[in-house]
Amino acid sequence: MTFTIRPLDPLKDAELLLGWVTHPKAAFWMMRDAKLQDVERAYTEIAADEHHHAFLGLHDGVPAFLMERYDPAERELVGLYEPRPGDVGMHFLVAPADTPVHGFTRAVITAVMAHLFEDPATARVVVEPDVRNTAVHALNEAVGFVPEREVQKPEKKALLSFCTRERFVAATGVAV
Questions:
Q1: pTM
Q2: What is the mean pLDDT of residues 15-34?
Q3: Which strands make up the sheet holding 52-59, listed edge to edge?
Q4: What is the torsion angle, in degrees rounded to the nearest 10, for the CA atoms of residue 75, residue 79, residue 85 and residue 86?
């Protein structure tokens, strides 16, 4: 599968994202009741934040997923764990599909992780999905994440997990 990743345009891409973040399968994204202005505002704030970045992932040129990269020492996990140099936080959301393609979501998370590890400064990827999101826990494990512990965030109880470059390569066979 061929994926490309480009910076998200908060205004041009907001309408597309609205359909994704309000879809029932995106319940853990916590934007089910969002309106267009909410999506525009949220992603305009991210675009202005030096510690948080949003990207649109394309599959054969067609928008297919959303990826966020953040500095966990500055956003999301401040005070909840001891960050290390080279830690990068990540969120991803696959667009809803009328006809699901077997293995697609796993291919997306593999592409997201490869993209993050393309930066030689990235030593470890940190995620904090909702503890109830068992589907994403399985995907995370498939690409090399190791759960460390549950942490209480303001909006959810999360499973703090880490993936080193070495664990990613061992789990996926993708050279980065």
A1: 0.94
A2: 91
A3: 3-7, 52-59, 62-70, 87-94, 124-127, 157-164, 146-152
A4: -40
Burial-class residue 147 by CB neighbours within 10 Å (0-12, 13-18, 19+).
middle
**Rounded Cα gap, residues 113 and 174, in angstroms:** 10
Separation of CA 7 from chain center: 14
Residues 54-68 have pLDDT tens digits of: 999 999 999 999 999
What pLDDT, in 10s, does the model give residues 37-46? Answer: 999 999 999 9
